[in-house]
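Hey, I'm writing a tutorial for new members on how sequence and structure tokens pair up, and I'd like a real worked example in the thread rather than a made-up one. If someone can provide the structure for the chain below, I'll link this post from the tutorial.
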Amino acid sequence: MRRNQKLYQSLAVLLVALMICATIVGPTDMLARADSGNLADKAVAFLKSEYQANGAQGGIGGIGPFDVYVLKSVGVDISDWKHNDQTLLDAVTNLVNQDSSNPTVPVKRLAEDLIAMQELGNNSLVDQLKMLLQNRQNNDGSFQDDTSVYSIIPAYELLGRAGQLSVVKATYAQNYILEQQDPTTGAWPKDWPDFMVTAQAVRALNYLAPGAAADSAVGRAMARGCDWLKGQQQSDGSFLASQFDDPLMNTAEAIHTQKARGLDPANAWTTDGQSAVDYLTKNALNDDGSFGFCRNTTDATWALDSLRLLGILPTGSNGSGGDKPSTNVNVRVRVEGITGPPVDTTVSVSGTALDALKQAVGGSNVAAPGGFITSINGEAGDPAGDPPTSWFYYVIRNGEIDPVAFGSGPDGYPIQNGDQVVFYVGAYDAASYANLTYFPVVSLTPEAPTAGQTITLSISAKKYDWNTGLQYLSSTEAAAIGDYTVIVGETTYTSSNGLVVIPNVAAGSLSYVITNQNSAGYPNVVPYRGSLNVAPAGSNIGPQPSTCIVSIAVVGRNGEILFGPTTVTVISTNPWGLTALGALDATGLAYTISTKWDGYVDSIAGQANSGMQGWMYTINDTAPLGLAKDQVIASGDRVIWYYSQSIDQAAPTWAQLTSGKPLTPEVVTSTTGNAVIHPAAGGTVGLGNEVAVSIPAGALKGTTGVPVAIQKVSAPPAAPTGFKLLGTVFEINVGDTSGYQFNEPVTLTFSLDLADLPEGETPSIYYYDETALEWVNLGGTVSEGTITVRIDHLTRFAVFVRDIQEEISLPVPAKVFTDVPSSFWASEAINQLSGLGYISGYPDGTFKPDNQITRAELVCLLNQVLELPTYSPAVPDFSDVSAADWFYEAVENAVHAGLVKGYGNLFKPNDQIKREELATIMVNALGKHDEATACRNERTSFTDDLSLSDWARGFVVVAAKNELIKGYPDHSFQPRGGVTRAEACVIVTNFLTMIGKMSPSLTPPV
């Protein structure tokens, strides 16, 4: 069987190779090879000839969006490229429009479309493509209507290259890629090692987890992948993994991968003294002017893209992608350390951001092994600090922070004329690596002041996250960093709500510095240095446009925030003046105006009006009468544009937008057994009071409402041997899908008639396995006449209990610990759990009740108590929990059940559990997650209430209400204090009592 699989795979790969090589340019006499000349010029000439002869095809071997991306990235002017009077730009845009309307197009194509439209500046199509990719991603990292690893991994790599990984859930992507790796060879995919996919997988992981530790799961995966790639190198420097491979394309992938990993492709990987660069420059070009084995556009484009990375650009190019542009550009370089003096200078240089830094401070003053900066002018970060600090950089291009720079090291980011490159020492979270130093966003009003006028500085900050991209700080985050300090000459100002007013400015050059420093010594926000010229009063500078600063937010169809909430400066000279429509224009979002109704907004960010659904707006939480183009605004106004799903939909308020809570469609609750649930909102569907399924927001796939139905099964399968059915068997369906899989677990609740329960017996929820034809125990939490369990798929469900008549008593304690006398305050709880077999002591007969319990010990205890379903992932979810660890299964089970979370890719099993963490875990175990979410803004009576973490507040509230956990004698809660083994036992016995699994204890709650 294995041999047949290999045969089929070989034939499939051969077919793909033949398809790749099928498109070969005919008029070869136009491109006769010369003995000298720029390879990049020849690649461009070949591609132009191909388009003129055959037009855009968009498939393998034909000119398409990715080819346009590469051509534009090297600075080629393609505006005059025509085929049958159609320009290449128009042809490719048409292809992208076709793809965006096809729900089953491979995601690799969509990612290629996105990176091309981003390079062309077509923001409307970029927004559409981002939404398509986001909505199609499954929770296993694959995509709806596309499960091909040969499409999915390249798509993730392209999104990383475009700086658009925030479009998808990075955790799903990372887990998918890791699971596809061959455990034996280290290549991708595991069923047929492929050179290109392996190279793309390594780069995708590099984008998803930049700076991943070498001993982490991601670090090990990338290292093994690189080892396999290097092992395929041939004596001429090329790479060949099978007889069907194209050596040039593999070599191009190797160059990209080495660059991504901070290696020099000319020296890092060599065989017989030959490198990938040697092969590319010596053997890529054929005698007829084509490139590579297949001699088609794909080979030429791959060659051109690799030449870009090596600084070999077309003649006269001003490309954005080359490491070494052929001419110097002027770049402003700033260095913002913590201890050293700042640097602020303009340099004329060619190359990358790192080249610009070396030009600014001197190459000998920069330490950057592998392209990662460790020291500038003798100042280094402190990776052992609390929090740790390091050198970072970001780029301001055309007045905006460039998100692409976050996906590349400074040695791989090509500079352009007018760039501002800022190198700074910033802090980051040691567990999640999330940045703790943010980026300033500053605007001035008026932009061209004269002496005697008042200037207003509007200051806010953005952050970059690999899951969410570049976005403004939430109101909570902004409040946490506090006010900004602004120094103008000898005068110091402090911001108020992000605004600084500078009255009566004098003529001349006005320089200012904006800082926001953390008390721990690191910057909350990178320092900002700006200047402007103030003209003399009465200067003949012509009429100046009037301006106003307003707050604005734009809310999309599904409640997603498309812009803001933040401030913008609206200028009277924009097409709509100082109006609500002018404020929309100031956001920079793409929008269209109706050709039938002047001033009526048809679409924003690619989301168009449809029927009675469409765009509406409010000013200061009031819906004006009339068109937005006629509604005058003033400084301080708050403008909200939102997509209304119905004419009576309530508009979002400014308080809602700044609360940090998501905006979603209405949550549906039904007891009829049928309801349409919106994926962004979630809801609950029940059948009378017998059974209900609660679906959280995001659990359903797609972006539109789907029907959820519950019905009784008239002829159910027989009960398991020795068990009896309580109530009725129910079948639950979503749409027409059988066995529907949710993106995340949902909650299933059955009502119980307690009179039917044998004394001492606990019922369980079961699901029917349609393949094995048997009932499978899911367990469940019993509370107040109900039993609840979390599930991730749908089928038939029922509640069963052991069918016995005899009374069963609780077991007596099996062991008495030498350090737990009967007088010990928690002895009853400890002995009960010991008797049930849930806990054990140490070999010396002690229990050590006052020792702090670790995260690993706690999840093991809960795994025993709750009898959690076993979950065995292909790759461990955490880099610090291996399959050989004694707590491995318990950790995976608890995480999969939704009881506990990790810290990024770490679980920290040996860390002491914190009290607020324990409260969260136990409330989740009670099935009261939704109640805790609803209580997230409530206050407790604890004296240190303000010390509760935001994420834990609601859970502590619920835990206190249910007397799972109480405070200390001084009425404090001590949220980040540890939990002793004795305290944990008492809390667990209280929990077991609440769910009916244990008699009430005399032990007081902790």
